[in-house]
Amino acid sequence: MEIETIGIDLGKTGFHLVGLSAAGEMVVRKKCSRKQLLQFTATLQVRLIGMEACCGSHFLGRALREQGHEVRLMAARYVKPYVKTNKNDYIDAEAIAEAVGRPRMRFVPIKTDDQLDMPSLHRVRESWVGRRTAVINQIRGLLLERGITIRKGRHHAEVALPQILEDADTNLSGRLRILLAHLQQELRQLQSQIDEIDVGIVQTAGEHEACQRLMAIPGIGPVTATAIVSAIGNGAEFKRGRGFSAWLGLVPGQYSTGGKQTLVGISKRGNCYLRRLLVNGARAVLQCKEKQSPGLHAWLSKFASRAHSNVVAVALANKLARMAWALLTKGELYRPPLLAAEAVPV
Fold first, then answer.
1. Integer Cα distance of 59 and 52 in angstroms
2. CA–CA distance, 30 with 323 (Å, rounded to integer)
3. Model confidence pLDDT, tens digit, residues 20-48
4. Angle 243-245-246 from CA coordinates, rounded to 5°
5. H or E stretch including 64?
6. What is the C-alpha to C-alpha distance for residues 71 and 31, in angstroms, rounded to an integer?
7. Which of 40, 75, 230, 273 gets the highest tally of CB atoms within 10 A of its CB?
């Protein structure tokens, strides 16, 4: 039995496996647990094994590589076009087996445990930041029902809430005061947890040479730098900086037909967390563009005079992403953009 490619549809406890021959015929079709899967593949001769990049795929990919197999991960949206009919686990596995053998397929590199640790830290931090925002909004809503308003912003809520609870003249019942005190305690606990993670991120960025070079770019701090390095490593998976910015969804989407090219808003594909960090960093740069290097300041001023601030922020985020890719790929230090006259050698 000669197997050309194998597609594995991953589950929490059950795994569906389909093997295709060189002619595209199905030669293996079975369901097994993780232990049974690794026992089955230990003595199997196969050219290529494919899986969708999802939870657990990196662990299983490393285990299969240790057995000597060539394993490739793919984004789920690239596998979907190969699903021919109704959806079930075996059909998904067959689509994976067919897609992994395509020469123009785009693959996701298998990450090590160290490469997964930092993204996990960022995901936990992001969930705590979202929960902190939800608690603040809940506090503001409860107080608004009693005719008490708080200015927008976390700092204003943290300052105003203790004063409101200590003021005996406010029209608040004892039960509501206890409830607000519990929410205040939860808010402080979340802030303490976020601060602790931030300290770890800053420490990691200070110890990583690539992160230090990235933090020299305007708008990129420890959080963004560690997120970029953990996401793309040295950037070798992308041939050009535009490929990295396209992966982040920072380039225009295209809807062209009949020889007529039509560009729409940014595609918003790829890593939405990293894209948001870069856009927020770009907004911070725009707020103090007078302090930037002459070349960057001139570019921002010229662009801002003819485009909306949101468009300028996204364009700058695109530029920051390309700068970051160049520094990681070439191993160089950041050089601030100069004016055209200054850049011409004498």
1. 12
2. 47
3. 999 989 999 999 999 999 999 998 999 99
4. 60
5. helix 57-66
6. 19
7. 230
Paired residues of 292 in beta bridges: none
Tokens coding 66: 């240790």
Banded model confidence at residue 344, pLDDT cuts 50, 70, 90: very low
Tokens 């005719």 -> residue? 147
3-class secondary structure, 262: coil
The token duo for 285 is 């740069």
Q: How far apart are CA 6 and CA 109, in angstroms?
A: 18
Cα dihedral 122, 124, 130, 136 sign: negative
Domain 3-99, architecture per CATH: 2-Layer Sandwich (3.30)
Q: Return the domain boundaries, the chain.
A: 3-99, 113-207, 209-341
Give the residue carrying structure tokens 């299983």.
Answer: 60
Q: Which of 316, 338, 335 is nearest to 326 (CA)?
A: 335
Residue 68, token pair as written in the block = 């000597």
